[in-house]
Amino acid sequence: MAIEVETKDCTMLGDAEIEEMADLCADGPNPFGIGLISKQTEEWVLISTAREGGRLKGFTCFTLERIGGTPSVIIGLASIHRTSKRDTVLRALMTEQLRRAVLAFPDEDVVIGARFNEPSGFEAFKILTGIVPRPGHKSSGEERAWGRRFVKRFGLSTLTYDEKRFTSPGKGTQACVMDHTSLKEEKIDADVAAYFDKLNVADGDVLVATGWALSEDLAKLA
Predict the structure, then answer these.
(1) Which of 4, 17, 25, 185 gets the most CB atoms within 10 Å of its CB?
(2) Cα distance between residue 187 and residue 29, in whole Å
(3) Which residues in 90-124 are b (16+ Cβ under 10 Å) and which e?
(4) How far apart (Å, rounded) are the C-alpha atoms in residues 61 and 53?
(5) Angle CA(113)–CA(203)–CA(139) in degrees, nearest 5?
(6) Could you tell me the CA-to-CA distances from 114 to 17, 27, 107, 222 in Å, in that order?
(7) What is the model's pTM?
């Protein structure tokens, strides 16, 4: 059965839909509650949902805007249900966000930023280029600057942000991350996994990653 993706304004979400989202991630490592999800829908503009046979399989809150003039997709709270089709759901949601980006910013490269607290989440960026951080790559000053820009946009402290490790310490509260667990965790690059070794997930620590979608690739989605 095909995965059906729908995008709408966060303001259009009803209580039943928010409860459905909370139920979806209740058994995962990031059990976002109704209160948190409801608050997040007030902070982001759009929400994409993925369904199979009418059943919710994943969702992501995001905003399209320019950061310093550069077209950006800022991914807020997101969760993918732990099923055998989770990779397909993740890819469908990411593709939808990029499709929305090319409609908003035609003929332009777009930078994407998200927060993660486990290495599986990096699978969301598979379709992007220039991912930072990435194994074997020494980040440039401009790449580190993009990390700081997204940290600020996420409402995190730029004073405590570690721009060399791309990590932001938590404050003892649940982090709003891209929640996804890989179907093949054993195949995750050890160097990618190492980025998360020192994160205190329980305290809300996150890694802020960025990547780029090039205009020629985005044009194929228009």
Answers:
(1) 25
(2) 19
(3) bbbbbebbbbbbbeebeeebbbbbbbbbbbbbbbb
(4) 22
(5) 35
(6) 23, 22, 23, 23
(7) 0.95
- Render pLDDT for 64-83 as a digit per residue (tens, 0 to 9): 999 999 999 999 999 999 99
User: How far is the C-alpha of 122 from the C-alpha of 112, rounded, in Å?
Assistant: 12
Whole-number Å distance between alpha carbons of 33 and 25: 9
> How do residues 107-148 score in pLDDT, each as one tens digit?
999 999 999 999 999 999 999 999 999 999 999 999 999 999
197 residue type, one letter: D
Q: How is residue 139 written in tokens? A: 């980040």
Which residue ranges make up each domain of the chain?
3-221
